Predict the structure.
Amino acid sequence: MKTRWMRMTAGLMLAVWMASGIQAFAQEAAPAPAAAGSGEITLEQAKAEAEKGGGNDFISVVISSGPLGIALWLSLLLTSMAGVYLCIDAFVKIRESRIMPMELLNKVRAAMDEGDVGKALEYCKAEPTILSNILRAGFENVEEGFDVIQESINAVADLESERLLQRVTYLSVVSNLAPMLGLLGTVQGMIYAFATLATQSAGAAQQAMLASNIAQALYTTAAGLVVAVPTVAFFYFFRNRANNIILSMVILTNDLIKTLRNVEVVPE
């Protein structure tokens, strides 16, 4: 479900980028001859351009940034939404009580103390978690010998640990992507600023356009950092939490399988 959601988000971002890029080049090519041939801008034209710009507040900057700039802001919005979703998902799923439920652990310990591996296996099947999946790998191979039990548990433990850390890795992707999108917006704003200097005469209209372009550059940079900074912090937080849980789970599993050296399956 999460992989499908990430693919749909990436596809939407790509479609918006392609459509906005084509429209941006088409719109930016048209006004160049008129600006080059106008020579000077009258006071009335300057006032009209300033009013058209709508000021330098955030909403006006976003609207006046053009199709490519709007696509950047949509991408930053999707990135921030993905970061919030991943953080909530990690808060819910990367917890010791969810990965190693104490109730299941007590039931398995009690069954192992009785020497009933089949009963412990049924408990693990009835409550699927990361810990139960690892223990099942050992219990299902109890008749093959302790070496096979240990190899099976280690293989499943590596697989489950990798799956757990993959959830955290997506946060790293978001934290790296957001500042790059902000930097791209900065580059776009500076390109527009220098294009304004090259195509318009000095005056109020030029100053208004320069201010709008520079504001666009700074706003996108700030937005990218606002998304990236907390995402980086949560990435390291959840990565350390996951590593600690994995270490505890490995120690607990090794402690449980020690008793399998002398345990026999109770016949039904």
